[in-house]
């Protein structure tokens, strides 16, 4: 008897084919389920006057996220950033933050908003309970005020109060050495300008009691012409000037004050000068302006910090900003916290983040800490120095003392009724 | 002819009163159906983003439609209408944070404050015409914006009202619940639109149209133009403030940007987009702008260019708002059909 092969496909091969088909179709799903990406949402300002800072935040985040992803991701899950422009409008920031969580499925938020926008995103975090790290808002009340406190929100940003304490200590030393008693101030007329200047003067007088402020100027935010402010200061003839103007306002002010040779007639303390965005834009950067550090790759003077600054420059063809290091640090914190929690669950990560200390190129001693009691960043490199017109721009930065900062900050919190 | 005589003449020449009741019944019916449809949405789709979208539509829709009462119906081009949006948001937010009164009380009190401010500002502004009116309203807006920025102890300055807006439940409504907030916003939107529709269709509404077309003639037949303009200015402010309160509840705060000129600019843009000759034009404009904004910002960060091109298309291409275009097109077709 000869076996005749039936036409068509045998049962065995049909089963084999079905099996193969099932594997082919299921494989990506299985793989995806195992290495499901984790989405992190980020509202920030990518258009308008501060777009450069928002872009530099995005750049820094992407630089760090690529490293984390290359090393296997967050608990084995690749990070996918969803970054959207809020145009600097708080209602848009709130909408986008909600959309990122509710619709795009983001499990965490990096809040790249400044000032009012960060408070709007904070309310979204309060409402939705999603893990949120603020990365750009320097307003002290965001974390110092206990009314603002929620367990799922953190702030990975420098603070106005820290800058004022360190700046005043540094300025008082110079004031005593050079006998600078008559001071003038010139700061933008809004909450940040008024608060920071007030705190600086308060601590300056504490460290050098015979200092006296003889002239105050409050130019409007984004004011194009500073002639009246410059002449007012020159007429008052102070020995030193303090300013917390920033960004384009600071560079226009310096360019205009240069015409009147203001910088040869007094010592100038401009807290926001030592940021590459300002340093590289001013036409004739005067020598010897005293400034706080914003981001400068020579401070802290460690190979890690220099390498990070160079890597950023190599990738984006410009230097990082103050917002850049803060955003990068936030990603570093997330990475470490997820490793320790061994989970990407927001609640568990938040628990680990509270009080967490990590190695970081921007730390005063190579580490930074997310302080447990108010969920805010401490231990970052903070200091003051004087400018020169070319790189490295601020060659010698004097580091602030965190012990003093903590003591005075505690007093300040008490005086504000926060503790 | 004396004013008295002119008034008598107007009375004798007045056309017989048209019974407005059937139309009002129709409006009530439309409002009820619209509210029912909106209330059903969350049960059909269940998308939180959609609810957020409708809440924002309610806030901006009330604001833009109230602006159209000034721009489209009365011919008062206000560049400062956003101040009342901001005032509503801040008034309500502060009242809830500082006094802890029930929400309906804060709502009414905010309207009362807005009313007083609008009477004072309006009394000065509505005397002026055209560009002067536009610029003085803008100036008042900047004054209010600057006050919000400077009065830090009360308003929190540029950081806005912080710490969230408390929402104690009232009459079984808990506004911290997303669905409750949605339904309440829809109710406010529908009631607000219904009331504005009644204002627009009332004899007073037709008086406003007459003032828009020829204020001199209106005053000659005995209409107190200043009083009529002031009345609509205050009424429009109240609806704008209601929009502001919805926005304050949505973001759980109030920020100086709510009282900035850009909000007024957006209102004008919405009116251009939707059209000012039909009552629902601004509402259509609101939905269009928000859809455009939300989709374009998702796709590209160069949203400014896209929105700019859209404005150009409407301003130069259509030369009118979308609803104006649609209504004219229908009228033309009907004309052709009957002709």
Architecture overview:
The complex is a heterodimer of chains A (419) and B (339). With 419 residues, chain A is α/β, with parallel strands linked by helices. Chain A has helices at residues 11-34, 51-70, 90-102, 115-128, 141-144, 160-178, 191-207, 227-236, 247-259, 262-265, 276-279, 303-316, 322-341, 346-353, 402-415; strands at 38-44, 79-85, 108-111, 131-134, 153-155, 182-186, 212-217, 240-243, 267-270, 274-275, 290-295, 357-359, 367-370, 377-378, 383-386, 397-399. In chain A, the strands form 4 sheets. In chain A, strands 2-1-3-4-5 form a 5-stranded parallel beta sheet, sandwiched between helices. In chain A, a hairpin with a 6-residue loop joins strand 13 and strand 14. The longest helix of chain A has 24 residues, at 11-34. Chain A is elongated and about 100 Å long. The relative contact order of chain A is 0.12. Chain B is globular. Chain B is mostly helical and 339 residues long. Residues 1-12 of chain B have low confidence and may be disordered. Chain B is built from 15 helices and no strands. Chain B has one domain. Chain B has helices spanning 3-13, 21-44, 48-74, 82-99, 103-125, 130-150, 152-155, 178-201, 203-213, 215-220, 225-251, 261-274, 281-299, 303-318, 322-338. The chains are: A alpha/beta (419), B mainly alpha (339). The interface between A and B is medium-sized, with 32 and 33 residues. Chain A: Residues 37-378 form the Leucine-binding protein domain.
């Amino acid at each position: 008897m000869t076996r005749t092969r039936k036409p068509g496909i045998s049962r065995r091969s049909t089963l084999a084919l079905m099996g193969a088909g099932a594997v082919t179709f299921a494989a990506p799903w299985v793989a995806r389920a195992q290495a499901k990406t984790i989405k992190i949402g980020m509202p920030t300002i990518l258009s308008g006057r501060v777009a450069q800072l928002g872009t530099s935040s995005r750049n820094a985040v992407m630089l760090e996220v690529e490293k984390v992803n290359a090393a296997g991701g967050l608990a084995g899950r690749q990070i996918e950033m969803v970054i959207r422009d809020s145009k600097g409008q708080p209602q848009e920031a709130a909408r986008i933050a909600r959309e990122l969580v509710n619709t795009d499925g983001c499990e965490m938020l990096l809040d790249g908003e400044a000032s009012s926008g960060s408070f709007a995103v904070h309310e979204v975090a309060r409402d939705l309970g999603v893990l949120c790290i603020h990365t750009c808002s320097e307003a002290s009340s965001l974390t110092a005020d206990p009314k603002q406190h929620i367990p799922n929100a953190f702030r990975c940003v420098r603070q106005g109060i820290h800058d004022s304490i360190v700046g005043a200590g540094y300025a008082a030393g110079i004031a005593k050495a050079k006998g600078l008693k008559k001071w003038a101030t010139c700061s933008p007329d809004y909450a940040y300008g008024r608060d920071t200047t007030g705190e600086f003067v308060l601590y300056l007088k504490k460290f050098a009691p015979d200092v006296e402020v003889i002239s105050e100027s409050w130019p409007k935010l984004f004011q194009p012409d500073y002639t009246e402010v410059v002449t007012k200061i020159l007429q008052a003839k102070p020995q030193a000037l303090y300013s917390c103007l920033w960004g384009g306002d600071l560079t226009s002010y310096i360019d205009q004050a240069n015409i009147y040779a203001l910088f040869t007639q007094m010592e100038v303390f401009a807290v926001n000068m030592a940021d590459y965005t300002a340093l590289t834009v001013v036409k004739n950067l005067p020598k010897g302006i005293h400034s706080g550090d914003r981001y400068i790759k020579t401070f802290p003077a460690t190979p890690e910090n220099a390498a990070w600054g160079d890597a950023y420059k190599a990738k984006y063809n410009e230097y990082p900003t103050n917002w850049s290091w803060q955003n990068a640090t936030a990603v570093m914190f997330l990475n470490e916290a997820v490793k320790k929690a061994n989970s990407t669950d927001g609640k568990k990560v938040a628990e680990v983040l509270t009080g967490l200390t990590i190695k970081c190129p921007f730390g005063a001693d190579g580490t930074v800490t997310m302080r447990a009691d108010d969920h805010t960043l401490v231990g970052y490199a903070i200091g003051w120095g004087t400018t020169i017109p070319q790189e490295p721009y601020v060659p010698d930065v004097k580091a602030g003392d965190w012990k003093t900062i903590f003591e005075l900050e505690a007093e300040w919190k008490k005086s504000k009724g926060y503790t | 002819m004396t004013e008295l005589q002119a008034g008598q003449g107007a009375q004798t020449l007045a056309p017989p009163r048209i019974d407005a009741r059937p139309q009002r019944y129709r409006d009530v019916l439309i409002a009820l159906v619209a509210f029912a449809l909106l209330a059903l949405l969350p049960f059909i789709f269940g998308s939180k983003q959609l609810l957020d979208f409708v809440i924002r539509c309610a806030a901006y829709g009330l604001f833009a439609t109230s602006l159209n009462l000034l721009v489209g119906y009365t011919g008062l081009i206000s560049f400062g209408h956003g101040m009342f949006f901001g005032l509503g948001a801040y008034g309500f937010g502060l009242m809830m944070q500082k006094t802890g009164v029930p929400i309906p009380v804060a709502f009414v009190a905010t309207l009362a404050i807005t009313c007083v401010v609008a009477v004072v500002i309006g009394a000065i502004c509505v005397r002026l015409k055209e560009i002067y009116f536009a610029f003085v309203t803008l100036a008042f807006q900047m004054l209010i914006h600057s006050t919000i920025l400077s009065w830090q102890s009360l308003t929190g300055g540029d950081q806005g009202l912080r710490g969230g807006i408390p929402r104690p439940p009232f009459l079984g409504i808990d506004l911290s619940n997303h669905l409750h907030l949605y339904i309440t916003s829809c109710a406010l939107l529908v009631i607000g639109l219904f009331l504005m529709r009644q204002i627009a269709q009332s004899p007073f509404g037709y008086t406003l149209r007459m003032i828009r077309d020829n204020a001199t003639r209106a005053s000659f037949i005995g209409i107190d133009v200043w009083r009529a303009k002031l009345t609509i200015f205050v009424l429009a402010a109240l609806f704008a403030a209601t929009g502001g309160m919805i926005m304050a509840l949505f973001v759980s705060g109030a920020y100086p940007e709510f009282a900035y000129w850009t909000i007024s600019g957006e209102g004008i843009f919405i009116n251009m987009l939707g059209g000012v000759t039909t009552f629902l034009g601004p509402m259509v404009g609101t939905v269009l702008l928000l859809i455009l904004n939300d989709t374009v910002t998702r796709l590209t960060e160069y949203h400014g260019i896209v929105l700019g091109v859209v404005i150009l298309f409407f301003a130069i291409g259509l030369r009118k708002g979308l609803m104006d275009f649609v209504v004219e097109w229908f009228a033309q077709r009907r004309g052709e059909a009957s002709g």
